[in-house]
Design a protein that fits this description.
CATH architecture of one domain: Alpha-Beta Complex
Order of helices and strands: HEHEHEHEEHHHEHEHEHE
Strand content: 15-25%
Radius of gyration: 26 Å
CATH superfamily of one domain: 2-enoyl-CoA Hydratase, Chain A, domain 1
Helix content: 40-55%
Structural class: alpha/beta
CATH class of one domain: Alpha Beta
Number of helices: 10
Shape: flat
Number of strands: 9
Distance between the termini: 65 Å
CATH topology of one domain: 2-enoyl-CoA Hydratase, Chain A, domain 1
């Protein structure tokens, strides 16, 4: 191949790269315009808040929910739940935020595949709970898990050394046998947290003691079982939730539902890239410190 042909080939390659980049930027710009329109949306609508996966504390999510209270364009809130729960504190945070919204606007929860434990804490913040017949819900309780490796360490010839100010400091520990004193302290902690959860369920669902005992023994229930136990109010999906909003609060089913977004304080282009790339630009770390309200099959 002569020199002119090589140069022509290189020029063509540069042009192709340029136009590919230009086309990509154009597509992202169009998406950005659409995202921008969403953020400036002031048309009357129903807000759709999705709580999915493992629930943790989230300041930006809390702020996004609080914003719904003051937005006049928001007539009601549909909370879509597909979560086995998570940290008890994270679920409590969403509960209180939704109750602030419910003080001014109707809130309805829709449980999808699963809305157990901490997911159910979120659901009872709503004025009305809907679930599918085969949805899983319930699992009312609190979980604390640990592990002990002293037997393995002894076999490996490893001797752990711990210096502490008091016997209960740093307990439970995977490198120390669990004493009866530690077990008792953890039991008191769990019972206190369970009492908080159970009292919340009793208050929100207006259970008598017998109903509470039946529903709050830690089991999961299908939607068909849950409605008999009064853990939920109706069977169905978002359509049933919108129908309830219309019948109970006069919120038209013709109003569009717009998703609530959070965690996007960066630039519009960064948000667009985030949407396109599936959050490749975020470094998310899952921590499991603290009490858990989560269902584990």
């Amino acid at each position: 191949m002569d020199a002119d042909a090589i140069l022509d080939r290189r020029r063509l390659k540069r042009r192709l790269v340029f136009w590919r980049i230009a086309a990509g930027l154009a597509v992202m710009a169009l998406i950005a315009v659409g995202v921008g329109k969403y953020y400036s949306h002031d048309k009357i609508h129903v807000a759709r808040l999705s709580i999915t996966g493992f629930i943790m504390e989230d300041i930006e999510r809390d702020a996004a929910i609080d914003e719904l209270v003051e937005r006049d364009a928001v007539r009601a809130v549909v909370v879509r739940i597909n979560s086995p729960g998570g940290t008890t504190t994270g679920s409590e945070q969403i509960y209180h935020a939704l109750r602030r919204v419910a003080a001014k606007k109707p809130v309805v929860a829709v449980i999808g595949t699963i809305g157990t434990s901490g997911g159910y804490i979120v659901a009872i913040a709503a004025d009305h709970i809907v679930a599918m017949e085969t949805s899983l819900t319930g699992s009312i309780g609190v979980l604390f898990q640990t592990a002990e490796f002293t037997g393995l360490m002894e076999k490996l010839g490893i001797t752990p050394i711990s210096l502490k100010s008091s016997p209960l400091k740093g307990q439970p520990s995977p490198v120390e046998p669990m004493t009866e004193e530690v077990r008792k302290a953890l039991r008191i902690l769990l019972e206190d947290s369970y009492d908080w959860f159970a009292d919340l369920v009793q208050k929100r669902r207006q259970f008598d003691p017998t109903e509470l005992r039946r529903a709050a023994d830690g089991r999961v229930f299908s939607g068909r079982q849950a409605i008999k136990l009064r853990l939920i109010d109706a069977l169905g999906g978002e359509r049933a939730a919108r129908r309830w909003l219309k019948e109970s609060h006069g919120v038209s089913t013709d109003l569009p539902a717009i998703d609530v977004r959070w965690g996007e304080k960066s630039s519009l282009l960064a948000r667009t890239l985030d949407t396109v790339s599936g959050k490749l630009f975020k470094n998310e770390r899952l921590t499991l410190d603290g009490l858990l309200s989560v269902w584990q099959p």
